[in-house]
Specification:
The protein is about 55% helix and about 0% strand. The protein is an all-alpha fold. About 15% of the residues are buried.
């Protein structure tokens, strides 16, 4: 599973690949949706890359991407919730899939407070 978008769907990799292959063939994605999909894929990639970071910069990048995934509301055009809505993805499912790949200790801020919202856990 080279494509980070597969990390958000679940454990059945064959079904995931078939679904996304069908989706990519049958629906023409306009440039705007391609941009949104690239943003989501990049966020998943950064989440996976920096989840075990030990240096300060890597930990900050990880916290930033977790904050983007977990922030509620559509206050910004490119908020996580807007991206999911425009791509017709279930935001709760995406959050669960992303969070499933990391332990709870990585989702705390500098003071040890949990940064992830309850709904996604």
């Amino acid at each position: 599973m080279d494509d980070p978008i597969f990390a958000i769907v679940g454990n059945d990799s064959d079904a995931q690949r078939r679904y996304f292959d069908t989706f990519r063939r049958s629906e023409h994605l306009g440039p705007e949706k391609l941009l949104l999909l690239a943003m989501l894929e990049d966020a998943i990639h950064l989440f996976q890359k920096y989840r075990g970071a030990r240096e300060r910069a890597g930990k900050e990048r990880f916290r930033d991407v977790v904050d983007w995934f977990m922030r509620e509301g559509n206050h910004w055009l490119f908020s996580f919730e807007n991206v999911c809505e425009l791509l017709t993805l279930d935001r709760k499912c995406v959050r669960r899939g992303v969070l499933a790949s990391v332990g709870p200790s990585a989702l705390t801020d500098k003071r040890g407070r949990r940064t992830a919202h309850r709904e996604a856990a």
